[in-house]
Each structure stands twice: as structure tokens, then as C-alpha cells.
Amino acid sequence: MNRCQPITTLKNLDAAMAFAKAGIDFVCIPVKNEEHRADLMLMANKIFTELIVDAELRDVIEQARKDHE
């Protein structure tokens, strides 16, 4: 396991706080090495993309309901 630099730890904590403020359930996962980190980042990007698409779809559905009232 690689030791994380203090500035990186602070940036990671800031990101976690931003997720929490946005109401996104966030789980802290230890990282074994850079390859593992890259894999986790790819997974996170996929999940965030899915969350964005879901939110946009909900907005479209809500707007369609309002348009038909």
C-alpha cells in the first residue's frame, strides 16, 4: 500500500464532504496502489454518469407531467 500525501488526503476529504452535502451516499474505500486507484476512479465515473442520467430523466419526466397539466 502506498502512503497518501497529506494534500491528497485533504482533497479526498473535501470531495467526500461535497458528496455528502449533495445527498450522495459515499463510502470511503482504501486504495492499494495506483492501478487499484485508477480502477476505482473508472467505477466512480461510471456511477456518477448513471446518477446524472437518472436525474436528467427524472427532470424530463417531471417537465412532461407539468406540460400535460
Care to describe what's here?
It is built from 2 helices and no strands. It has helices at about 5-20, 35-65. The N and C termini lie far apart (about 60 Å). The mean pLDDT is about 90.
List keywords for this structure.
0% strand, single chain, 72% helix, elongated, mainly alpha
Supply the number of structural domains. 1
Radius of gyration: 17 Å
Which sheet architecture does the biggest sheet show? none
| Global structural class | mainly alpha
Number of helices: 2
Overall outline: elongated
Helix content: over 70%
Instruction: Give the ordered list of helices and strands.
Output: HH
Chain-averaged pLDDT: 91
End-to-end distance: 58 Å
Q: Which strand-content bin applies to the residues?
A: under 5%
* Low-pLDDT segments, ≥5 res: none
Please give the number of β-strands: 0
Any chance you could write out the topology, listing elements then pairs?
Blueprint: H1 6-21, H2 34-67
Describe the structure in brief.
The protein has 69 residues and is mainly alpha-helical.
